[in-house]
Write a structure and sequence with these properties.
The complex is a heterodimer of chains A (501) and B (689).
Chain A lengths: L1 H21 L1 H12 E5 L5 E6 L5 E8 L13 H8 L12 H22 L6 H18 L7 H8 L3 E7 L4 E8 L3 H13 L6 H17 L2 H13 L13 H6 L2 H11 L5 E7 L3 H12 L22 E7 L5 E6 L8 H12 L5 H9 L3 E10 L7 E8 L5 H16 L5 H17 L4 H15 L4 H11 L2 H11 L5 E8 L3
Chain B lengths: L1 H13 L25 E4 L5 E6 L5 E8 L13 H12 L6 H10 L3 E6 L4 E8 L3 H13 L5 H16 L5 H14 L11 H5 L3 H11 L5 E7 L3 H12 L22 E6 L5 E9 L1 E2 L5 H12 L5 H9 L6 E5 L1 E2 L5 E9 L3 H17 L4 H13 L8 H13 L6 H11 L2 H11 L6 E6 L1 H4 L9 E3 L19 H15 L8 E12 L2 E12 L4 E8 L2 E8 L2 E6 L2 E4 L2 H12 L2 H6 L6 E9 L2 E8 L5 E5 L6 E10 L4 E15 L2 E11 L2 E14 L1
Parallel strand pairs in B: 2-6, 7-13, 7-14, 9-11
Antiparallel strand pairs in B: 1-2, 3-5, 3-6, 4-5, 8-12, 8-13, 10-12, 15-16, 15-27, 16-17, 17-18, 18-19, 19-20, 21-22, 22-23, 23-24, 24-25, 25-26, 26-27
Helix pairs in contact in B: 2-5, 2-8, 4-9, 10-15, 10-16, 11-12, 12-16
The chains are: A alpha+beta (501), B alpha+beta (689).
């Protein structure tokens, strides 16, 4: 009897809870309308300022709408290389003599391009090649004279900057850190300077650092290797199939001239959104924005990606050999985040794999003990373009990947047959809402969320309005999208296997 | 006027090309003061300590508990017990809120609960929306106090842990991190012990129950709460919820001394599927209580803290040898930390990176740091202090951590003063005193073929064996016996049990089963029909709860009671199927297809028996009376469904009766792990032809 009573209480509370949550988005939206100020400079650069006066700190987040997917053929990895270059200083920071250094950098790039062209001749003469390389290395050695090592980042750290970093994804590049709030002007100064005056200082040494990053994340990492291969198999035409860190030979081939061209095309104000959250005054921020970013060249609108992934003609399967335990990826081509089915696929992923009550966890991890880990999520490797619904499966010891694969299909088939319940759907919505609320109390998260939402959906309010979109998704929608997208013909399956010894 | 215009003109001419003002011309306004919240502290009579901080920005409440316990208390042969106790507490739910019910309750309310036990502390958390606090606080306390530790979740934890063990050599950074600890602390210490298949197998449910019982008592408990509440009301609720916890005995955590004599070693682990070397170098570190703690932290910052550090500048920015390079002189509170520097570099530049690192460590000793470096490092530290208190949770956590670790309330302020007072000479002095660049241990995890002989110049290379010890076998160790003699004895036994030329379908049996229980022996009337060829069986038992019927067929089973038929869970059906398969009748029926090994003789109670191991799955060993050819005992391993453990079982057969050519032991006594489990007295058997 006790259990019955408790169950009743629980579901009764649940009802209350949903009722309370019904207008949660409206309530928070209203609150943030008051705390949030936004403005667009004449050149098109958009700013969002979120006031939070709890502590004398502020977080800064620059979202650039350019990622691996935007890169020109032959220059995979260039968005990421440029991101690294953004820490190398400006014309006044990080140099002993910019005028001379500038000349050196130009000569260095010419020398490298010359060597590169020779290297790719049908029968390059080895002594000519060595000569050209020596010339390049001589200039590179000379370039060290002008460098004040890491001065740009040192200034930030010296001023108490924390969380300093940047990242490049398939869809976007972002730059972020926090400062004591009285040093806000310093951020404006440094951020404007680095994006107005990129110098490409230490370009060729930094490419080697990037290559080490590639070795660390991809070549020497079992999951990294599998993911790179997976995308290359799943996408035949769309640039989502290419690694964000770049193919090794493309990293070699990329020159400063390429990076400059990339910067000119993509780092234009209309392609950038900036958010600032913390103990700041919006009017003052607007003044600084105009002072520091007002003269950022307007440029032309950034190029757009026009390639569409053609419909898949049948299941694709592959294995890669390594010397680690098996891992498996199963992915289905889905839609971009602007498509109406995107949220429904998100919800399917959430319901089947998020939390201990989810179907994949309960069945495959808990009951059958087949999987050490299993997860499903929508929007891989990005979501600006047609993306994938991806399942990652890590089998337990002595369990075949095939066995686990089929068990996952059984759960997906159940979704197609309409097995999901209203209770599961509500639970997923509730947890997404709560996750949103929990993210509202830190400056970094707020700045990131508001800026990226503006950049991808045109309005930071979508952070809250998205909850209405979730509300509109029905069980029928979940069944329909599963039937439409989660089908064999649309699937890519890849796994790591042990190399034969 | 004219003058002014001219002046402006000149100024414009000399302005730098960049239109914006220089970064170093900015004047910073005064920073707003940090508002430190009140922390309310109180104790209950049972010993629980509470820390409360109000934060009404969002309608959330976060509770964090700390428990004085840790894996340093677990026995060596049960390594993994502490962490398993921590995880199964949560995974298994409580007696009142079993796992499934608890998970639904929490996830329906977007709430989360966790429990864990680490090396030197345990803890848990409750993160919820404030309106659920009343309902979920008692549930959380119930979980802390009455975890159910159900067998299936223990199995789950064991399966998962075993899988993690099998994967522990997949990633080179994980290998490098772990093996370097072994080099510093020694392989078999409380600081480095690894979970192994065997130590996981050794853990029983009782172990978890006892570990929990010792640890989760009020004397060991600290509770911190931050969120949207009124401290007065919260206090009342907490007193009510935690007041009934037993006081218990405060745990004493003993951290063994570390014996380290600065060996210089070169160690290598081959990982053929990588193209980068993961390099770790260093030696033992220090203690937090050292008077040089602050100076060492400043030294750390100069050497390896962030983008401005020397290692970052040299190994990454100047030489382009690595993306990742870092390290620190570690200072722990209870036992010495580790001084370690790590980097990842392409195989071909392994030695170059090692040399660059050694050079930087030596440079710290040989040359004073510059004025600018010291000033920048201090500025960096002092200017970022404001982030230390930028959220109320951070303030609460620091307070609780200091308390738990026995640090004074102003430990941090003292540290800040120490940093301010650190001089150039201090840094060089501690670098000379604490760093031993000539007595470092080097560990490289990488691709042997690509690295070649680069490491030879550092000394004799020790190849570290990281192979994972095999799981303990369920079977007896495979001592090779005499197969020919085995087959002979198998036939002898078969002929003694079943008169040759006897054909039959099944055997009926009527018996009294005497089961040993905690309340004493219980007698159950039983009648059964078993077909040993098809492995089917029907058994009807008269239990105190009424008639119970158990059926085995098609590899599974059902249980019918009071007219309700339900499937038998596999962990119950399988032992019954195994029992039929390894019975002396099944074995005797199948001698043509079975192999057996004669393992010698064994004397039990003055009688010498023939040891015969029959190679079937499940394996069984018979002790055959050489005079009669009948089995006197059988031995086998079986999963005990109550404990989830492999148990060693032995049946003793006596009082043989022959009916219709089939011999049947009328007295069977069973022992599990040496303890009597039950006996069966057969009243009659008959053979269905």
């Amino acid at each position: 009897m006790k259990t019955v009573g408790k169950k009743f209480t629980t579901s009764f509370l649940l009802l209350l809870f949903i009722f309370n949550f019904g207008n949660v988005q409206a309530q928070y939206l209203e609150e943030f309308e008051e705390k949030t100020t936004e403005f667009t400079l004449d050149n098109g650069l958009h700013f969002i300022v979120i006031e939070r006066h709890d502590a004398p700190v502020a977080s800064f987040y620059t979202h650039v709408n350019v990622g691996g997917a935007d890169e020109p053929v032959g220059n995979t990895g260039i968005a990421h290389i440029f991101e690294h270059m953004a820490f190398k200083g400006t014309k006044i920071i990080g140099t002993t003599n910019w005028e001379e250094e500038k000349e050196n950098i130009e000569q260095l790039d010419d020398a490298y391009s010359d060597w590169l062209r020779t290297k790719y001749l049908p029968n390059p003469d080895s002594s000519t090649l060595a000569e050209k390389w020596a010339k390049f290395e001589g200039l590179q050695e000379k370039s060290k004279e002008y460098v004040v090592n890491n001065e740009f980042t040192q200034i930030i750290e010296q001023n108490g900057g924390t969380g300093l970093n940047a990242s490049t994804g398939a869809d976007l590049t972002n730059y972020f850190y926090s400062l004591p709030s009285n040093r806000t002007e310093l951020w404006f100064n440094l951020e404007a300077d680095r994006f107005k005056n990129p110098t490409y200082r230490e370009f060729y040494v930094e490419k080697e650092v990037v290559r080490e990053e590639r070795r660390m994340r991809t070549d020497s990492n079992p999951i990294g290797r599998l993911v790179e291969e997976f995308l290359a198999v799943a996408y035949t035409a769309h640039p989502y199939g290419r690694p964000v860190v770049g193919w090794d030979s493309d990293i070699t081939a990329t020159t400063i001239a390429d990076a400059k061209d990339f910067y000119e095309k993509f780092y234009v104000p209309s392609n950038i959104t900036i958010a600032i959250a913390g103990d700041v005054d919006p009017d003052e921020m607007k003044g600084f924005a105009e002072e520091y970013f007002g003269d950022l060249r307007e440029g032309k609108p950034a190029p757009i990606v026009t390639t569409l992934e053609p419909a898949q003609r049948g299941e694709r399967r592959f294995t890669i050999e390594g010397n680690s335990q098996p891992i498996m990826l199963i992915g289905y081509h889905g839609v971009s985040e602007s498509h109406t089915d995107f949220e429904a696929l998100n919800l399917v992923g959430n319901i089947i794999s998020s939390g201990r009550t989810s179907r994949l966890y309960k069945k495959l991890v808990d009951e059958e003990k087949m999987a050490l880990q299993v997860g499903a999520f929508n929007g891989f490797p990005g979501s600006r373009f047609g993306s994938m619904f991806l399942t990652l499966a890590v089998p337990n010891m002595d369990i075949d990947v095939d066995t686990l694969e089929h068990a996952i299909y059984e759960e997906i088939e159940a979704v197609k047959e309409g097995a999901l319940t209203e209770e599961e759907l509500n639970r997923a919505r509730t947890n997404i809402r709560a996750g949103l609320i929990r993210g509202l109390n830190n400056n970094t998260g707020l700045a990131r969320n508001f800026a990226s939402t503006h950049a991808t959906k045109g309005n930071w309010r979508e952070v809250f309005n998205r909850l209405d979109a979730l509300e509109a998704v029905s069980l029928d929608d979940l069944q329909r999208v599963a039937q439409q997208y989660l089908v064999r013909k649309n699937r890519t399956v890849g796994a790591t296997v042990r190399a034969e010894s | 006027m004219k003058r002014l215009i001219l002046f402006t003109f000149i100024v414009m001419l000399v302005l730098p090309l960049s239109a914006q003002k220089r970064y170093d011309e900015i004047e910073f306004p005064e920073i707003n003061p940090i508002q430190m919240p009140d922390v309310e502290v109180f104790n209950l009579d049972n010993g629980t300590t509470f820390y409360l901080v109000e934060d009404n920005e969002l309608p959330l409440i976060n509770m964090r508990i700390t428990i004085k316990t840790g894996s340093i208390l677990e026995p060596e042969n049960k390594t993994g017990l502490a962490s398993m106790t921590g995880s199964v507490m949560r995974e298994g739910g409580s007696t009142n809120y079993p796992a499934d019910e608890l998970n639904e309750l929490l996830e329906n309310n977007a709430a989360s609960m966790s429990t864990f036990i680490g090396m030197g502390s345990g803890g848990g958390s409750l993160n919820i929306l404030k309106e659920d606090f009343d309902e979920l606080l008692p549930v959380f306390v119930d979980l802390l106090q009455n975890p159910a530790f159900p067998e299936d979740k223990i199995d789950l934890a064991k399966t998962q842990t075993n899988s993690s063990i099998s994967r522990r050599n997949d990633e080179q950074q994980q290998i490098g991190y772990r093996e370097f600890q072994n080099l510093v602390y020694g392989e078999n210490t409380v600081y480095t012990r690894e979970k192994e298949y065997e130590t996981i197998d050794n853990i029983t449910r009782d172990d978890l129950i006892n570990f929990h019982k010792e640890a989760f008592v009020a004397s060991n408990l600290t509770v911190g709460v931050v969120g949207d509440f009124d401290s007065g009301e919260m206090k009342v609720m907490l007193e009510k919820a935690f007041g009934s916890l037993p006081s218990g005995k405060e745990t004493n955590l003993l951290y063994p001394e570390v014996d380290y004599d600065f060996p210089t070693t070169v160690n290598f682990i081959d990982k053929p599927d990588v193209n980068q070397s993961f390099v770790t170098m260093g030696h033992i570190g220090g203690l937090r209580e050292s008077p040089d703690y602050a100076a060492l932290q400043v030294m750390n910052q100069v050497l390896s803290g962030g983008f401005s550090s020397r290692l970052f500048q040299e190994v990454r920015s100047n030489l382009g040898l690595a993306y990742s390079v870092g390290g620190s002189y570690g200072s722990n509170i209870n036992y010495p930390g580790i001084f370690r520097i790590t980097t990842m570099t392409k195989s071909s530049t392994t030695a170059e990176a090692i040399d660059a690192i050694i050079k930087e460590v030596k440079k710290l000793q040989d040359e004073p740091v510059t004025e600018k470096e010291l000033r920048d490092t201090k500025d960096q530290f002092l200017n970022s202090l404001v982030f230390r208190y930028d959220s109320k949770s951070k303030i609460l956590n620091e307070r609780i951590n200091n308390e738990y670790n026995g640090l004074s309330q102003d430990a941090f302020d003292e540290f800040v003063e120490g940093v301010k007072a650190t001089t150039i000479e201090d840094i060089q002095r501690v670098a000379k005193e604490y760093l031993r660049p000539d007595n470092m241990q080097i560990l490289v995890v990488g691709n042997a073929e690509e690295i070649g002989n680069q490491l030879e110049k550092y000394g004799e290379i020790n190849e570290v064996d990281i192979s994972i010890p095999e799981p303990p076998s369920d079977e007896e160790p495979a001592v090779a016996g005499d197969a020919e003699k085995g087959k002979e004895w198998l036939r002898t036994m078969a002929d003694a049990v079943i008169n040759p030329d006897t054909e039959f379908e099944s055997i009926d049996e009527i018996a009294v089963v005497i089961q040993e229980t905690q309340m004493g022996a219980m007698e159950i009337q039983s009648s059964s029909t078993t077909n040993y060829r098809n492995i089917t069986s029907e058994r009807i038992m008269q239990t105190p709860q009424g008639e119970m019927q158990m059926s085995i067929e098609n590899g599974g089973g059902t249980l019918t009671m009071m007219g309700n038929e339900q499937p038998l869970p596999p962990q119950m059906a399988q032992p019954m199927i195994n029992e039929i398969k390894r019975s002396y009748i099944s074995v005797s029926l199948d001698t043509d297809n079975l192999n057996a090994e004669y393992l010698g003789d064994e004397t039990v109670d003055g009688t010498s028996y023939v040891l015969l191991r029959v190679d079937l799955n499940p394996q069984v060993t018979f002790l055959i009376d050489p005079e009669t050819g009948l089995p006197a005992r059988s031995r086998y391993s079986e999963m005990n469904p109550q404990t989830g453990q492999q148990a060693k079982a032995e049946n003793v057969y006596a009082d043989w009766q022959v009916v219709d050519g089939v011999a049947y032991a009328y007295s069977v006594t069973s022992y599990v792990d040496g303890e009597k489990g039950g006996e069966m007295n057969v009243e009659s058997h008959s053979v269905n032809k």
